[in-house]
Each structure stands twice: as C-alpha cells, then as structure tokens.
Amino acid sequence: MKQLVTAIFGIISLTASICAYSIESLGYAVLANEGDIEIRKYEPHLLASVRVNGDFEDAGSKAFRPLFKFITGENTTEAKIAMTAPVIQTSTADQWLISFVMPREYDLESLPVPASAIVEVSSQPEAIMAAMQYSGGWSKSRYEKHEGLMMQALAASNYKSCGEPKWARHNAPFTPWFMRKNEILVPVCSL
Fold first, then answer.
1. Confidence band, pLDDT 50/70/90 cuts, at residue 54
2. CB neighbours (10 Å) of residue 106?
3. CA nearest 35: which of 151, 137, 140, 141?
4. What integer pLDDT is reported at residue 20 of this predicted model?
5. Band of the pLDDT at 55, cuts 50, 70, 90?
6. Helix (H) or strand (E) holding 40
7. Who wins on pLDDT, 8 or 90?
C-alpha cells in the first residue's frame, strides 16, 4: 500500500510540474554563452511587486499572499491575471522586493490597478542580464553558493556586473525540489 501511495504521489507531482512549465515565461533572446552563464536580452515587461522585511527564506512567503490576491481579482476591475514565471526576488537595502512578471498582453494602461497599496506595478525596460541556472531547493545557502559561482564566471567573462543580483524561481512550491528551475540573474555591461 505504501508503494502505491508513493507512486501516486510521484505521478501527481510529475504531472503538476509538467503543467507548471506551460505557463508564460519572461521572454528573452540568448546573445552569448560565456562558460556556465548565458548573456540574455530580456524584453520590456511589467512587474507587480511587494516590499517585505525578513530573512531571505521567508521573504517570498510574506509577499506571496498580496501578489496572489492581486492576480486573482483583488484589483480595480476584479480581473483574473494569469500566473507567469519567474518570481523574482531582489535585495533592496534592508528589505526584499518580490515580483510577479505580468503577462505580455498587458501594458501600464490595460493592467488592472491593484486594490492593495502594498502592491506596486512598474514597467521594466529591455535589459541585458547574465543568467546561471541551477536546480534544487530554495535555501539561502544554495542561492549564495550559485551567486558566488555566477560572480566568478562573470569575472572570467567579457562582461561585468552593472547591478544587483536577482533570484528567479520558475516553479510552484509543490514542485519536487529536484525538478525546480532556479536562476541567478545579474544585469551586465560589456567590458
């Protein structure tokens, strides 16, 4: 019986993970490969963001509820907004900025206005970013390890960091840890 339950749970997890890959992702074009990193040109996009206090691992959880309420109808038109990937986490002084990427179909004029004052919508211009992908859990130590690897790879490349690193999580929390796609993103400039 235990094996049957384990098999059923595995199938459900795998199916849910595959479905998660069918959501819209932030668009980009690969400009170059520099060892373990890709240099990408990201398209202009909108972000819905919430600033929170707390530690690295709790920040995403604290910001999730108001962002989720916004996309599920807590906005001026009570519109449902599709979930997209990735969820982006950035350090800002003594706070965290957690952001949901808005679907391409919206611009600042057509995106519903958040009902909550803590949800901020911003327009992001086209950006050149270095990206390093890794799989696994969402711990601070895993993030810091890969951020260090990213900075080493950048130091050996034809690019330099021109901004703060961002953590991009592409999967839902119920995705098995070994199937999660995570990325470190760093704005870059040519040397």
1. confident
2. 16
3. 151
4. 44
5. confident
6. strand 37-42
7. 90
Q: Which of 26, 147, 133, 174 is nearest to 90 (CA)?
A: 147
Question: So what's the pLDDT on residue 1?
Answer: 59
User: What's the one-letter identity of residue 130?
Assistant: A
Statement: residue 158 has pLDDT above 70: yes
What's the pTM value of the predicted model, to 2 decimals? 0.84
Q: Which helix (H) or strand (E) holds 123?
A: strand 120-124
Residue type, 56: F
Stretch 125-144: mean pLDDT: 93
| Tokens found for residue 127 | 């950006």
- The pLDDT value given to residue 174: 84
Question: No. of H helices and E strands in the chain?
Answer: 3, 12
64 contacts: CB under 8 Å, gap ≥ 6: 98
Name the helix (H) or strand (E) containing 131: strand 127-135
CA dist 173 and 17 (Å) reads 10
CB atoms inside a 10 Å sphere around CB 77: 11
Residue ranges of the alpha helices (H) in the chain? Answer: 2-20, 56-71, 140-155
Paired tokens of 13: 């997890």
Cβ neighbours for 112, distance < 8 A, ≥ 6 positions apart: 75, 76, 77, 78, 79, 81
Task: Name 190's Cβ contacts closer than 8 Å, sequence gap at least 6.
Answer: 158, 159, 160
